[in-house]
Design goal:
This protein has 141 residues and is an alpha/beta fold. 37% of the residues lie in helices and 18% in strands. The chain has helices at residues 2-11, 25-34, 68-77, 89-93, 124-140, and strands spanning 14-19, 46-47, 56-60, 63-64, 83-87, 103-105, 115-117. Strands 2-1-3-5-7 form a five-stranded parallel sheet. A two-stranded antiparallel ribbon has the order 4-6. β1, α2 (25-34) and β2 form a beta-alpha-beta unit. α1 runs antiparallel to α5 and α2 crosses α5 (124-140). The protein starts with a helix and ends with a helix.
Length: 141
């Protein structure tokens, strides 16, 4: 049964997109990766609206103090095994907002991050590359 569950997670990862206070530049690139031109669905990825159904959380934006408990709660609602992809410089380190009074910093201060996609904003190809590497990581164990 475990082999079947692992196979299904590799062939069809369900993705939950989370914006924690971004300027929306990274969000547009994530959505572009989901559209037919770049077509991340060829890897079996499906965008879902609930973290309870998701295997992968794609997060954009720097994590604000107001969003920290909500972000952590949404992460905890995801079933195991769960993965996080931090998209953009803000999600990785706080970006241009690092050091502001209301910014916690990058996602790794709140939840474990599996993949980082640097850039301001990163290209859709980089986001697709991160998802492909994450699927490779799942296949390897």
């Amino acid at each position: 049964m475990d082999k079947l569950v692992k196979w299904s997670r590799i062939k069809s990862p369900w993705v939950f997109h989370m914006n924690t206070g971004a300027c929306n530049a990274c969000d547009i690139e994530v959505i572009a990766a989901l559209m037919p031109r770049y077509d991340i669905e060829r890897f079996g990825c499906i965008l879902v609206g609930s973290p309870r159904h998701a295997d992968v959380m794609i997060g954009t934006g720097s994590i604000t103090k107001e969003m920290t408990p909500r972000f952590k709660r949404l992460y905890e609602q995801m079933p195991e095994p769960k993965f996080v992809i931090a998209v953009g410089n803000c999600a990785i380190s706080g970006g241009v907002f690092k050091g502001c009074y209301n910014i916690e910093g990058g996602y790794e201060k709140i939840v474990p991050v599996d993949m980082y996609v640097p850039g301001c904003p990163p290209k859709p190809e980089a986001i697709i590359d991160a998802v492909a590497k994450l699927l490779g990581k799942l296949q390897g164990g």
